[in-house]
Specification:
There is one protein chain. Helices cover about 50% and strands about 0% of the residues. The chain is mainly alpha-helical. It has a domain at about 15-65. Helix 1 (about 15-30) packs across helix 2 (about 30-45) and helix 1 crosses helix 3 (about 50-65). About 0% of the residues are buried.
Length: about 80
Amino acid sequence: MVTVERTQTGLRVERNTLKVLKGLAEYLDISLGDLVEGIVLHAFEGKAPFGPETLTKIGQLREVYGLTLTAADAHLLEER
């Protein structure tokens, strides 16, 4: 176990992306913060954060919540 100090932050995320993240956190039985930390730490090391089973679940959640954005859209998003 590694002890860390966490801080509260205001993070703005696209609506449907957040729904998928919350649904995935619930599916994995972890907090949203733990999920985001895990994704970021994997990304910082160039590692994929999810295996095939979890990616399948993410695909299902994307359909349910209407998430059509992809990685190609990441740097092109604008606020309404």
